[in-house]
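May I ask for a sample protein chain and its fold as tokens?
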Amino acid sequence: MLKGKSIICFAGEDWWYHHPHSKNHIMKRLAKQNRVMFINSISMGLPSVRSADFFLKIRRKLRSYARFVRRSTEGIIVVSPIVLPFWGRWGRAINRLLLIFQIRLLMLLFGFKDPILWLAIPTAKDVIGKLGESLIIYQISDKYELNHMDHSTSAELIKQLSEQIKERADIIYYSGRKLFAEAVEHRDKSHLLEQAVDFEHFASTTERSFGAPDDIGNIKKPILGYFGAIESWLVDQDLIKYVSERRPHWNWVFIGNKARELEIESLPNVKFLGPKNYFDLPAYAAQFDVCVLPWVTHNEWVNYGSAIKVREYLATGKPVVITPLYEYEHMDGLVRIARSYDHFIALIEESLTDDSQEKKQARQAAVRDSTWAARAEEVSRLIEHTLNQQRNNCRSL
């Protein structure tokens, strides 16, 4: 495992308000033997003021700013830098100055030298070359320029910034199979960093007994359970309405943050329980009869997704039914992939009536070794190898 390094991660998410994501999991493990600074999302700009998400994002960012600099329980320095939520010409220039000043000051205060820069958002491009970095890693988790749902920055600018980071990066990680398959340029430094799972945590769902939490204990079974991001453009509400009309005795339970009200909230068999502590998720998942991922299939940006929750679902041992997602097509059979609304119903019924201990064990076996500890080891080896190559190249000059 990598030791004694300084790592500064510019994440695309917020440490405090998101279900743990790949950067969160990997940095926690690297922090055991390295100094880690985690920079909360500097965003790609706010959505339009007409968007229902506009004021929610303002409130959430202000709460994050109020924390400014905190140390996590793992010893990670978590920073919410003060920047403008706009990425036009002037906003970008001001943010460059603000970011560099704040991060340099924190590097001095916390003893960060020659840091490894881990960039996971295109708008972090402007810090490259300004922090005395020894290595640049670019983690690409999404097709960033296709996301026009939660910010108003132009797709062309986002794409331009992303391409510029690729040029400068020493290592490029793609978090999804579709993203990696389409990566034509920079193949010599491009790698697939698949999502992983906190296996023992989620396996406890079916390996031990849990009392039902109060807010789910009175919901009648069968329960179709979901945890993670809940957005109107992400969750296929038409699918849920279709299924609910035909199977009104199936209860849907959604756990996670949502920016706005969804149409399906009015359905009597759809329950939103709000966000839950990550450590409590197994107790809730223990009440699910089937774990579901009812994402839209017509949104191009969503189709590039590599939802961590599918591996978390598999680790529970529970049956899993999802709508088609490129990332998990190779697991068809372990996860049941619904090709239509009626097929979704059929697969849920199959999950409820035709499951076994053998199938549960097969699902868990598929992800047992795909842990975040294994991913951190993989990352460590490549970083060490790349740094050694750099040193050898310097000696040969």
